[in-house]
């Protein structure tokens, strides 16, 4: 009989251990949509691209641009795969890295087999807030 009480106590202790709260909450897996410097709160630009052919590689970048229209600093970017139809995107960025004195633009390019085939005409982003840009048309590269 004593062995039964020992087994019962062991089972109760095991169940009690399983029922208790873990000492550390599991960490959430980060969203791998864009590469932005880590911040407590990320803002995002969202929309969709029109015209990216199936099998193409699409890259969108949020950039600080100098007076000569040359990229000065990468704020965030995301790479997508063209599907031949409307391609939704979310580009997250750190609002603290957003410059109030420098022009900020969203730019995009589409490559296929290593060749540049299309691009997104630059879109100036005036505020470091969440923005829905809607459908954006890609244009062929001459």
TrEMBL record:
Signal peptide: 1-25
InterPro entries: Pilotin
Entry keywords, A to Z: Lipoprotein, Signal
Pfam families reported in the protein's UniProt record: YscW
Species of provenance: Pseudomonas saudiphocaensis
Protein name stated in the entry: Putative lipoprotein
PROSITE patterns referenced in this protein's UniProt entry, alphabetically: PROKAR_LIPOPROTEIN
């Amino acid at each position: 009989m004593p062995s039964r009480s020992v087994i019962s106590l062991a089972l109760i202790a095991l169940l009690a251990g399983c029922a208790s709260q873990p000492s550390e909450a599991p960490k959430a897996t980060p969203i791998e949509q864009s590469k932005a410097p880590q911040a407590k709160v990320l803002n995002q630009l969202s929309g969709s691209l029109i015209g990216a052919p199936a099998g193409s590689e699409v890259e969108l970048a949020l950039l600080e641009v100098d007076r000569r229209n040359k990229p000065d600093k990468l704020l965030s970017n995301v790479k997508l795969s063209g599907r031949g139809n409307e391609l939704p995107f979310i580009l997250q960025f750190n609002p603290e890295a957003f410059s109030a004195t420098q022009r900020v633009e969203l730019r995009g390019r589409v490559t296929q087999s290593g060749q540049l085939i299309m691009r997104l005409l630059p879109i100036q982003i005036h505020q470091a807030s969440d923005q829905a840009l809607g459908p954006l048309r890609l244009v062929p590269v001459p």
